[in-house]
């Protein structure tokens, strides 16, 4: 009953908010930062929006907030991000199925489970990375010998595709391990691997995918990129460990939650985007813009995921809804609700083994602005991601322009999705 009431109230609030909403592309959102050197730590999660401008956007990304420009980004014709790289996605999917093949039949079946045709999902992360590779407008030296430029372009693109493949293997490995830790029974609308083949094989399959990713990473022979991707794996483990904490001062901290979210979700996207830039020989400034896009897109993605855990259905999500709260995982909507209703903390402290406590928490959430504030925070990060793309140097190349617009369009899709 509490869940049904929550959904009814949220639909009413969403409809009311939509009537008065400003176009997302017309605004960017700012956050005040401390001097923390940790990518996500030290961020104070209170921001505001003001008119979008390229210079202001760049100042946000690099940490200056001195621009007062009010130029508004002109709306662009929308393109389908996935169709722009459809051919490459098909090529990558074929290579991935080949790369995860194993000699031991059971391990082969387990490793291939989410790479089979029809079970691979949308390939969101490879799409972002392929679009980023084009959006960065790779420059081929003018004095290259005849034919050398084309060869260099093809070789670079193949190496950037490898980053997309590595990222997808790491992502799927993390899903396999997460499902074991969460005792999940569904994933992407089908039975989770641990439910179908058991926990041991699911863990081994995840380890196998990580080993394949490491082999592919080593073949790139780029120390800086290897370091970045190794950091991703470290962050994934750190984030999962942070999620297991039972200390109240950390469980109920928004800053702790956002750092955990960066580690578990945004680190993979941000460091992979940066790797694509580094492989192309871009400057540190351009590489950081790629990093900022990936980081903020990843944070926005996870914030909306946390909303959908309350508002979505098992059918639309491809996994169980209310999964987090039933496992005692406290996410942004509940954290924001606790700020309005401190008495909710006592309910959370009791845990959610008792279904009645889940209902009580949902009642408080429904009365609060927890869902709305989480969506607003996701929008702020989506705007910061778009700002990073807007800050890239101008280009007249049609493919570059389309790819940049597609990356900006993805920021919109992330925060408006319902699954």
TrEMBL record:
PANTHER family xrefs: GERANYLGERANYL PYROPHOSPHATE SYNTHASE, SOLANESYL-DIPHOSPHATE SYNTHASE 1, MITOCHONDRIAL-LIKE ISOFORM X1
Keyword annotations of the record: Isoprene biosynthesis, Magnesium, Metal-binding, Mitochondrion, Signal, Transferase
GO molecular function, one term: metal ion binding
Primary site of residence: mitochondrion
The protein's name: Solanesyl-diphosphate synthase 1, mitochondrial isoform X2
Subcellular location: Mitochondrion
Species classification: Eukaryota, Viridiplantae, Streptophyta, Embryophyta, Tracheophyta
Gene: LOC107953314
InterPro entries: Isoprenoid_synthase_dom_sf, Polyprenyl_synt, Polyprenyl_synt_CS
Cofactor(s) needed by this chain: Mg(2+)
Gene Ontology annotations of biological process type: isoprenoid biosynthetic process; ubiquinone biosynthetic process
Coiled-coil ranges from the UniProt annotation: none
Pfam families from the UniProt entry: polyprenyl_synt
Family label: Belongs to the FPP/GGPP synthase family.
Record has Mitochondrion as a keyword: yes
A cellular component annotation (GO) from this entry: mitochondrion
Signal sequence annotation: 1-17
